[in-house]
Amino acid sequence: MGRQINYYIEYESFLEIAQAALDCGCIIIKQDLKSRPSKVFQSRDISIVTKDCWHYYFYLPEAGSVRTKTYNYGERIDYGYNECGNAMIEAGFSIVREEKKEIRGERLFIMAGYYDDSGSWIPRPDCLNKVYNKLVRLVKKLAPNKDKEYVSDYCLKLHEEQGYKYM
Q1: What is the pTM of this model?
Q2: Contact assessment for residue 46 and residue 23, using Cβ atoms and an 8 Å cutoff
């Protein structure tokens, strides 16, 4: 369980969200799962956000630690219902598939917390709530509510004028 806001936002608007996360003290984490071996990159610079990767994590160091795990195919973030996941906001931008006339939705997501090895509940830190709430406000500004969905003007135009479907 956790909190999330679903939206349709293109790359250029997502850059504003990523920059806001950086301004709040986050580190942007990108997983390159296409290359072998796969790699995990961290940066305090917006240039890490590229059009070829639509899924990111905003890691807030004061909220906890981040870990990577190494598998046969490479590195991955140890993201899950654990300390690492409790320190991150999952985020991304919509993929626009021109050949299928589809726009894939994305989200901002934070976990509610996790149970540690002793079975004690560890709630998500208040500092992460503050960053998440700030980013949600920005999403709502960049993608106003259109018929119960948060859609940027760019994605709305594709939908209304060119018949793209929300996926």
Answers
A1: 0.94
A2: no
